[in-house]
Structures are given as structure tokens and as C-alpha cells.
């Protein structure tokens, strides 16, 4: 019995008692190869899809303390000293007849006392800075970012150890090259990454007219946390209250980094933590390095 060519049957059947011809064997092998190829394509496609969506390609890798149940507690803060407000109107003077008082004398104007900004306790900064090697000014920025994001995104779970570890990798806490982190939190001269011109790096044409990075042709990463201008436009923040969101000011940059990380979702599991840090830099080696440094900071404190 040969192959059944009955088209009305819609299939072809082979006599089980007959040995397959060479042509039939080749067809069977081709079918197996096609099946294997399809499976490989599906697997590769899944890996690519995972990478495109920003999930680390090695989700089983280790993570920072915040993802393993031993996250750093909120740093202690104290309110900035207040002076009780500044009086700007005339003082009320004693008078025999209250009707003789002028308007300014009746209602002296006093500027309302501004809400005091939180200040990280000096003793904590001193102890933690000595234990971890993080400069106190940078540590203050990371700690304040932790405090602020915990209030803004309580389910995120990122803490200062992760923010500090990213700051260490990106710029050595604002000390890359000949740059210096000042008492005001500004890094000078500015830390600028290479032009993103497509030569071994992503190609990102200028998006800010050179306002942040001084380059009107290509974008560059800027500041101690290395934000590109287009990302800063979305996540930049004025954390120090000076009215300017500046990627070269470490309070602003650290808080913006925390906001960016939390946009990926909760960081309270190894998978969630790695996905968030992977979104910051799409390299598993980068995620591993940040994890090692963050864990080192936590271990230094016991």
C-alpha cells in the first residue's frame, strides 16, 4: 500500500508493514528539525520579551538587603531649628484709645513659619559614614531619599543602601574624575557621560538643547546618579527645596533615582529588586555589582 492521495480524506496514511523510503525518512527528519527549531524560537522569543520588558535576565540572582527581609530601617531625623517666624509689620504700641491705632498697628503681620525640612541626625550620619565609607554629605542625600520615597511610595521598599550603591557605581558618590561634592550638594565640575552617539553606546539625539549636558547634538548622562536629560525630564525632582530640579545636585538626584526605581514596582523580593535595578542599567553584571555594594553597606552596620 502506498501513500494515500485521496484528497477528500484530508490526510495521508502509510502502511505500517512497509519500510519507509529514503525520501520518507528525510521528510520525517525535516519535520523533527522543524519542531525543534520552533521550540528554540519560542524560548528565545520569551527571553527577548522578558528583557524588553525590563526584567533582569537572571531573576534568580542575589539582591540587596531590602529584598531579603533585612532592609535598612528609616534613618533618624530631626527638624531643622526654627526661629518662630519673622515679623514684618509694625509692632502694636500701647495707646490710651484703641481707635487711634493705625491699620498696621492693629494687625501686625507675621510671616507664617515655614515647615521645617527634615535633617538626618548627625550622630547617625557620623557612625554610618565611618562604617561604610560613604561621604557624610552623600549619605545624607541617600537617607533623605529613603525617607521621602517611603512616605510617597510605602509599598516600594527601596532603602538608602540600594540608592547609595547606585551612587557608588555611577559616580563614586559624586567624586568621579576631578569632581567634588560640595556642602550644598552640588557636584562640580559636572559629571558628564560620553556622548550617546551610537558608537558603542545607544544613539540618543539631543533632547534638552544642551541645557543639562552642554551638548546640542547628542544627549549625555549627567550628575552623580547619571541621568540622561530625557529621563530627568520625567523623574527629576527638587528635593532640597531651592526651586530647581538639578541632576548635578545630589539631594535632587538621589530622590529622582528612588522615584525611578519604584516605578518598576515593589522591590521587596529578589525578583522585584533585580527588575528595578536592571531598569536603571540593562546589565546583569551591573545589577550584581549594585547588590554586592548594597549588601556590603548593610553588613558594615551589623
Please describe what this structure looks like.
It is a single chain. By secondary structure, this protein is mostly helical. The strands form two sheets. A two-stranded antiparallel ribbon has the order 1-2. A two-stranded antiparallel sheet has the order 3-4. Helix 4 packs across helix 5, helix 4 (136-152) packs parallel to helix 7 and helix 5 (160-171) crosses helix 9. It has three domains: 14-52; 65-81 and 121-300; 82-115, no CATH class. The protein has nine helices and four strands; from the N terminus they run αβαβαααββαααα. A hairpin with a 5-residue loop joins strand 3 (180-181) and strand 4 (187-188). The radius of gyration is 31 Å and the shape is globular. The protein is 41% helix and 3% strand. Residues 1-20, 35-57 and 81-112 have low confidence and may be disordered. The chain crosses the membrane at residues 29-56. Keywords: Membrane, Transmembrane, Transmembrane helix. Residues 218-276 form the Transglycosylase SLT domain. Residues 64-84 are annotated as: Disordered.
